[in-house]
Write a structure and sequence with these properties.
By secondary structure, the protein is α/β, with parallel strands linked by helices. The chain has 14 helices and 14 strands. It has 2 domains: 141 residues, Cobalamin-binding domain (Rossmann fold, 3-Layer(aba) Sandwich), CATH 3.40.50; 192 residues, Aldolase class I (TIM Barrel). It is 32% helix and 18% strand. The chain has a 7-stranded mixed sheet with strand order 6-7-10-11-12-13-14. The N and C termini lie far apart (56 Å). It binds cobalamin and iron/sulfur cluster. Cobalamin binds next to α2, β3, β4, α5 and α6.
Length: 404
């Protein structure tokens, strides 16, 4: 049977080197959301769930490396593999290139498979023998000649542990509910990567409920908070309603969940039902007061936030900096708009046109894409010509907004 090695890109991270910037990290909080809190920022490392999920659902013997150093990666290659799969994003393309060179040198006969949102970059094609631009399990099964059946795929238990100033602070686990999003916002990498389709990894509400209780059992903690990874969880109404029905019948400790949702999908629900469903926290893209993406159109986003907060539901609100209409002053106005919603946490990133999104195509047509290294596609750098704010200025503005 063929042997498979799957790996994330190699560390070290969070340093300005030839293949990384100080802003690229395997963390969400310390890299972005709570970065300005310095040593009081929660430290939580998130692994590549996608790779573990693939490994669990293929028959070929598979080893997964999470953030190895290049030395560890080469040591592992020396054990001999037929296929080496690497997951990357656009910002880690330079790391990927170095890893591909190592594979060609150590294992010239093995095949390289590239996967993840970095594959939106057309120039990646020359580094891999196979490129996965879709959900990875079915792709790998096809490649390995393994049966493609419709039986539910196995899920992996991914516990997360957070520390603040070195002290244990948070505990949780993550569930993969689905990929892709039908809204198709102009800038959105994941929606356009999956061609505006929603690909469920857990098909029914009962599947989701059973997976959460399975995690609780394995982790021996029925109160463990669960983060659901899926672009717009509340938009899949039928499944979320089925999940809600399961929760209502459950008389054990209440299940606590956090998820991503759009203003549009939140507005589809009775807010009291969101509480009953066990939602502790929602991550919502606010983007800008002037943004007119379909997920925001005609909605009073501040009123939606007030409704959630009034029921004790936390929010993580994100804002995009660098819309064409932004000036320095209007960025600060948008910042004030976001703060007026009193989000529990907030995230700010510079608008980044992932390749093959409508935004990328538009900026390309307008001749506005800058020739910058791919490591700068990290959300902290400007990669296109902005009509009102120059590159250095907007990059500093982002850091100032976080500090404020
Ligand atoms: C969780 C997450 C993280 C976590 C975990 C990252 C990780 N290693 O997976 C953390 C917080 C660490 C993180 C960090 C970063 N992230 Co992130 N992250 C996400 C998020 C929210 C979910 C990813 C996920 O787990 N999905 C669920 C799993 C099951 O899906 P998956 O990973 O996509 O994998 C499936 C397929 O893509 C495919 N696949 C993936 N890899 C491979 C490899 C092979 C060989 C094959 C065959 C298939 C395959 O098969 C998998 C199973 O179906 C996505 C947005 C999103 N909703 O997808 C952004 C996202 C992937 N992140 C992004 C970015 C930019 C970053 C950072 C650069 C941010 C920064 N400045 O630090 C760093 C990079 C860190 C690093 N070392 O690579 C961008 C990528 C944009 C792009 N086009 O390149 C995204 C799309 C967010 C966005 N909307 O812009 N991230
Ligand atoms: S709602 Fe969010 S996930 Fe969906 S397309 Fe828009 S930005 Fe992407």
């Amino acid at each position: 049977m063929k042997k498979v090695l799957l790996s994330t890109v190699c560390g070290p991270f969070a340093a300005n080197t030839d293949d990384c910037t100080e802003h690229i990290m395997p963390e969400l909080f310390h890299a972005q959301v709570t970065r300005a809190q310095g040593i009081f920022s929660p430290r939580v490392t998130y692994i590549s769930y996608g790779l573990e999920y693939i490994a669990k659902n293929i028959k070929a013997p598979t080893t997964v490396l999470q953030y190895p150093t290049i030395k560890q990666f080469i040591q592992e290659l020396k054990k001999g593999y037929d296929y080496v799969g690497i997951s990357f994003v656009i910002a880690t393309f330079e790391k990927l290139k170095k890893m591909c060179s190592a594979v060609r040198e150590v294992l010239p006969d093995s095949k390289i498979i590239l996967g993840g949102y970095g594959t939106m970059l057309p120039e990646c094609e020359k580094y891999g023998d196979h490129i996965c631009k879709e959900e990875g399990v079915d792709f790998m099964r096809r490649l390995l000649g393994e049966p493609l059946d419709n039986s539910p795929k196995k899920h992996v238990v991914y516990p997360t542990r957070g520390r603040v100033a070195g002290l244990p602070a948070t505990k949780g686990a993550v569930v993969m509910a689905g990929l892709g999003c039908p809204h198709g916002c102009e800038f959105c990498a994941t929606s356009h990567f999956h061609k505006k389709r929603h690909i469920p990894l857990l098909k029914t509400g009962a599947d989701l409920y059973n997976e959460i209780r399975r995690i609780h059992k394995i982790q021996k903690d029925t109160t463990l908070p669960i983060g659901i990874i899926e672009e717009d969880f509340l938009l899949q109404r039928k499944r979320a309603q089925e999940y809600f029905d399961c929760v209502k019948k459950d008389n054990k400790d209440p299940i606590k969940i956090s998820c991503f949702a759009s203003a549009y999908s939140i507005a589809l629900w009775d807010p009291d039902d969101l509480v009953r469903m066990g939602i502790e926290s929602l991550w919502v893209g606010v983007e800008s007061r002037r943004a007119n993406y379909p997920k925001l159109k005609g909605l009073d986003v501040k009123a939606i936030f007030d409704t959630l907060h009034a029921r004790g539901i936390n929010t993580l609100a994100s804002l995009i900096i660098g819309h064409d209409f932004h000036t320095v002053d209007s960025v600060w106005e948008d910042f004030e708009y976001l703060m007026s919603m009193k989000p529990s946490l907030s995230q700010f990133l510079i608008l980044t046109p992932a390749c093959s999104t409508p935004l990328f195509e538009r900026l390309g047509r307008e001749g506005r894409l800058l020739d910058v290294p791919t490591k700068e596609w990290d959300g902290f750098h400007l990669v296109f010509d902005h009509p009102h704010i120059e590159k250095q200025k907007i990059q500093q503005l982002l850091l100032d907004v976080y500090d404020e």
